[in-house]
Amino acid sequence: MRILIVEDDRLVAQGLKEGLQQLGYTCDVAHSAEDADVCVSGEEFDVALVDIALPRADGLSFIRQLRSRGNPLPALILTACGSMDDTVRGLDAGADDYMIKPYRLPEVAARIRALIRRSNAIADACLCHDGVCLDTRSHTATLNGAELDLTNREWAILEMLLMASPAVVSKDKLVQRLAGWDKDITPNAIEVHLSRLRQKLSSGSIVIRTVRGIGYRVDAPNN
Amino acid sequence: MRPTTERQPLSLRQRLILALMTPLVIILAASSIFDFQLAKRTANRAHDQALADNVYDLAAHLKRQLPSRDLDLTEEAEAMLRSNAPDMLYFSVTDAFGKVLAGDADLPSQPFPKNDQIEFADGQYRGHVVRIASHRISGYGQDFQIVVLETTEKRQQASVRILTAMIVPNLAVVLATLLAVIFGVRQGLLPLHAVERDIAGRSANDLHEIDMAGTPAEVRPMLGRLNELFSLVRESVEIQQRFIADAAHQLRTPLAGLQTQLDLASAEGAFKESPERYRALDEASTRLGHLLSQLLTYAQAETSGSQIERFEAVDLGMLVEDSASLFLDAALARSIDLGFDISPARTRGFPWMLREALSNLIDNALRYSPEGGTVTVHCGAEQGQAYLGVEDSGSGIPEEHVRHVFERFYRIPGSPGHGCGLGLAIVQEIAELHGARVTFPPSLLGGLHVRIVFPSAS
Question: How far apart, in whole angstroms, are the C-alpha atoms of residue B260 and residue A18?
Fold first, then answer.
């Protein structure tokens, strides 16, 4: 996995690079948007970490250019600009996620993993999480390598939860998703599907957590 | 309290009404008095004429009787003369020496007329106010004086009639004028009220210019100065905001560097000998980061100004749903049951600020709840007012501290955790900016329940 760090502050860039290298990622550092542009035009990366405030062209314009060329490289904004207004502008520019400085390394690593998982799901049509793998092309599911027999509804629920993890998915959203098969599906029916799904996954380490009053979430993998 | 209240200066409206009404009422009163006098005089003249007719009748009668020097009137004639209801008529005939020849002997004596004209005078007789007519007739080389007295009952009745006939329309005119003046003044001052409403309706942070279109020329210079002042303040607020943004970047970036280095050093085993030193450093830098974020949020909320035109529709339910993902891990780390109670609720505002306010409430609740406690986030609408609330099973806020909790950097003595004392100040600032109230409803979980109640949509 290769990560591009676009950050003008050398202390921060160096720290991120070393920290991510220790986690097994390969890291390149660009100190300006222009340098970053050169990097992405010649090399392949899996994720870009982008600071907004850069000398000359800022991080947002870098991401905008990336998207205008059709490059889907997942971009995580690391911003020191405080207000959420800036982060909204970042997401509008085409960034996939954002974090406000100061951040902690484990948190950054978790976000990177989520971004990579999502982009892999799109590219390889394979959604893997804590031993569970959903192959959306062949529509087969495995748990620790063994085949997992899921109904269409269970599959849809699990797919949604895995795509969103570690974010919470509301019961309403699941109802909307399943309404394609079942016009009158109720929140209670969702609960039934979930308890069956939990049973089927009970031998693995994946945790589907109930969030009181909202819905469910798959915890981030424990690694 | 002092018993006497200070006298308020008169309002512009009161001044105008007073200045217009006082001369108008005086003019109307003067003209009424003049009209009344004129009408009374005309009526008097008519009555005098009638009295004169009586005198002439009597004179004619006397002239016929004179040769016999027997001036006694027949009873019939006298009755006719005296029948003058409702007034009483008295008369006397005297010769040049004042000897009463006929009629009432006790009439007040009148100066002997110098010519043949009837002379009128006012007087008193038997306790009545009377009108007196005095006339001279001549016959057989002698002059006689005829005096006729009439009580003034008819005249007084006429006066009352005239007065009534005048007072009613005059009062109507006064009333109509009063209404016209009040209405006119109100209409004239309407543009001023619009300006007043515009200014009074703003929040303290609202610095947008007052729209001068349609304002009266008289207040325009004042509004112009006010707008200049607004733009000056706005500029300085913008400078302040830029400074805050710059400061944020300048402070946050090295702090991020510091924390990364700390994590790296720890990972490399630098703190193997003294893990408690790492924990202390880690805690201090985490607190520093938290304090920095809080300070910047507070400063931004304080200087953002209530630019209602930039408010957006906010679905509070979505806001609460999003917060679930943000805080679930922090809650799980302390085995706190973080739950949600979402009913449809919408308001208008700055989404990022409302998210900050909610985050601060949840963060506080998680900090001050014991391990294994419960925190519930609510949103919904009550009586048309949307609300956002967080309730916990912590120890709550003791009565004596409640009024201090909105003060910046106020921490309840002896409270656990590493809060910086800005959380509720931020919540209060953001609520104020949105015209919302912060309330403390009773908590079913036994701890603190803080609620932001938004103004109703209408």
Answer: 9
Q: Helices B423-433 and B351-368 meet at what angle, rounded to 10? A: 150
Of B258, B324, B352, the CB nearest to A214: B324
The span from the CA of B166 to the CA of B362, in Å, is: 79
B385 membership: H or E segment, kind and range: strand B385-392
Pairwise CB contact (< 8 Å): B252 & A104: no
Contact with chain B for residue A104, Cβ under 8 A: yes
- Note the pLDDT of residue A211: 94
Question: Is B284 in CB contact (< 8 Å) with chain A?
Answer: no
Report yes or no: B234 and B207 within 8 Å, Cβ to Cβ.
yes
The tens digit of pLDDT for each residue in B242-294 reads 787 777 778 888 888 888 888 888 888 888 888 888 888 888 888 888 888 87
DSSP 8-class letter at A202: T
Q: Which of A81, A167, A213 sits opposite B249 (nearest CB)?
A: A81
Q: DSSP strand E in A34-186: where?
A: 47-51, 75-79, 97-100, 126-129, 132-135, 140-143, 146-148, 169-170
Cβ(B433)–Cβ(B422) under 8 Å?
no
Residue B297 to residue A85, Cβ atoms within 8 A: no
Cα–Cα nearest to B245, from A95, A32, A86, A33: A86
Distance from CA of B381 to the nearest CA of A (A): 17
Full set of structural domains in chain A with CATH: 2-119 (3.40.50.2300), 126-219 (1.10.10.10)
What is the percentage of chain A residues whose pLDDT exceeds 70? 96
- State whether A104 and B267 contact (CB < 8 Å): no
Alpha helices in B66-125 (DSSP H): 75-82
What's the average pLDDT block by block, 10 residues per block, for chain A (223 residues)? 91 91 90 90 90 87 91 89 69 86 86 85 78 85 89 89 88 85 80 92 90 91 64
Q: If contacts are CB pairs under 8 Å, which of residues 142-201 in chain A contact chain B?
A: 166-168, 170
Choose the closest CB to A12 out of B260, B289, B353: B260
Percent share of chain B, pLDDT over 70: 90
